Amino acid sequence: MTLPRADGLTLQNPAPAADTLDTSLWVGPPTLGRNGVAVAPRAVTKGAGYRSYEVHQRMRVQQSTEKLNPLRLVSPEFARDPYPTFEILRENYPCYRDWIGNSYWISRYDDVTSVFVDDANFETRPKLWFYGDDAFGRDLRSELPVLFSQAAQMDRHAIPVAHALIDGFASDGHADLAIAFAARYPLELLARVLDIPAQDFDLFVQHYWTMQRGWDWDPEAERDGRQAMRDFANYFRPLLEARRREPGEDMISAIATLDLPDGPATAEDVVATLLEGDHETLHGGLANLWFLLLTHPDQLDRVVKERRLVRFAWLETLRHSAPVLTARRFARHEVERFGFLLPEGALVVSAAGAANRDPRIFAEPHRFIVERKDLCPREPRGQYRADGLPAGIAFGLGKPSRFPALPEDRPRSLYALTRDTAVAASNVLLDRLTHLRLSAGAAPTIRSLRLGDMHSCWSLPVTFGAV
Amino acid sequence: MTQACPFAQTLERTARGDADRSAAEFPLMPVGQACDMGRAADGTPLIDPRVFDSAEFFRNPYPYYRIMRDHYPVFRDKLHNCYYVTRYDDITRCYFDDEGFNTIPKGSSSGVLGNTQLELSGIEHKRRRNLYGQHLVGQSLEARIPIIERLADSMISAWDDLAAEGTIVCDQGGVRTVEIGRAFANEFPISVVCGVLGFPEEARGQFYYWYNSMMSGLGGSETQKMGLEARQDLEDYVQGMVEERRVRPTYLYDRDGKAVGKDVISKLCETKIDGDYLSTEEITSNIALVVGGGGETTRGAIMNMWYLLLQHGDQSGRVLADERLWDMVFHETLRHSTPIGGQPRHNSFDIVMHGQRVPAGSLMNMVDVSANHDERIFKDPERFDVFRPDLYTGKLLRSGFASQGRHSHMAFGVGPHLCPGAWIAHQEATIGSRVLSRRMKNPRIRVDRMPKDVDGISLAPVGLGSVRELWLDYDLA
To answer: Which of residues 33-72 of A touch B (CB under 8 A)?
Structure first.
């Protein structure tokens, strides 16, 4: 059985093969899940309110939850340091029913990764759905020309952007790495990848930042985010037309010249594409990497002496202090997992931050060890177990790629791209700045600024000599 | 050269603003006013979903519900992953649509109360509901009214002994001060339930403890374990009792020692569905529900009735002079301040309501207390008025009541899941209050012992739930 793919290609190897699936209960043709797995069409839900008493009996077997008040999961202390709470969850409640947040928390490594790869049972909902505006635009991130352009432009600009940023503060002898480097680098790079005119950079950053902050629960941020999306679309409209007439190598040109089945890309599609992607892992990952290296001087010394370790430091950072701590998945239909009957539409909060410190998987999980022997040195996709080793889970928020694992006709995965970019930028930093250390009296921390936000270091004052 | 970060300001503002907001509790506002949570571009007030966990919301919920009714009739709360339906007409429609808004067990009560008819739908619900429901209305109830009255009388007579202890009842200068909660309302409804179920007198203390534990475990918090254990103990106890009564049914007796009928458990033991006797497990779960539903809610109703009525001297004067009016007090209290905030439903299909898309399986909270304050239905809804012309005060009907400008309140819901205990709760609360009003001369609130509102002067508002303590003074002579 072959299934058409959204990009017009044909998927030759759907897994599991369709003829081994029991299709007798399907009510229509199968749809294609986001990673190429055939997904059963939604069963007719008419009468779903009717339950036999027997099904109902199973819900009786319930755990008590006295070790963790669900209010703690929305408290400011959780936003500051979630790891103690994660530990309570992971060690006591493999699946914690959070009555206040109306969700199920999954916190063990094997469970979290099993949810991430289970595209047939759990779906990711796009940020536009959280904005309540699915029809705003199309997410074109997975179109091949866009992916190719993004990879080429990131490769091209990764090192020059890092140099340009460091030029700005190298002669000062001190800087705030979190603000001047980690926060700024991904946006500068993105602006180059999109080829945003230099004079528009401030505006671009403002809109982008506001839009990315707005999709979650905060109503004021949501209001501002909606406005930013509209303004952003108005900004991109002439730019998109210009690039359609005279395409360059940048990502907007790639979007402008796409041949899409339902008409050429609009400015709203550009905004939707930017919204669904995000800079958080690169921003938070860089900030946390340098926070961890600077607060572990022995590890920093080793990395300075042996540059091949930068890459391992990055991977270990994403395990030890992933910036995105939880990812939301929704049950596509009623499914029995983790001892619970998860109803259709149930919100499953997969706590990657808890899984990354699961002592069942990682020895001494709270320690930051650059040359960790039990960490997979490949892309941190969570489900990877190359050489039998687990990877840290950091990219939980992005939906899984719908492309096969090792194709020849697609660029490096976004995970690898981000890793290579972060490593390149960090190497430039090490090349340019010597005797890098925390400023006297500085006591940097990692925290979320707002409940549910990225968990990252927001201020990292350092002193250095310059080459 | 220092290169200014173009969004350093944004970053700093964000960091500063968010730090402030998470540290700050929501300010306690004057009752009836919502705190400022920002406004949309067109001036519409915004709702910060964190307010639902705040102390401010618990004591002063109505202005927030009004914003929701006026601007977000189906409010999407992304922090708590649910939706709130707040208008009277919408809630009524949803309650009647048993298929579109189902009750399958996803609520926090399911662990503690067990499998109950709260969480059944369709034919299964209908069959069981009628089984239990029939014991709480009509002739079966009429037969119990003398027992209820006698119970209330004996509890009040016991105050004379309590006065000697001087804690919850104390006498001074011809005035008796009594805390109605501990001295009456806490135990009265649960004793009635015990009587209806035919629990032996000596087991009531234990029973009362189980009941309290189950109630505090309902929220799904750290006390849930206590609730689950109490539930298990109750179940073990009732199970033995059920098995015994299958063989030897027990009877209720009236004042003259004449058997008026079997108690509910004995009746359930001989009931069949589709030719099969009910399982012990099934009987137990629903007894647990009767315990939960029949105790706390009625306690809250009695407390709120007296608290609200005595704060309105003109109305209390008329009611205390004419005890038939207690039915109206009951209904207006349940409209104005219901002890139960609302009921959860889950939509079976993808729907769009008032422009809000709701995917199938979402938790939709039907906010009964908001329906009761819907100014589209009740004029000047924040005002407590026993003689309100737009409130129906007759016997609650499953179909609800709406005619000639009168609507029933939503405290018992409507439709297939209308509270089966509505009528017995009504009887308990009004009979209890009548007996109280006969025995207390010139009752008034003992203001200095009552919790105060934020200003430190006026009495605390009821808010969500019910008053925990109610100190009254009355003249002994």
So the answer is: 45-53, 56-57, 59-60, 62, 64-71
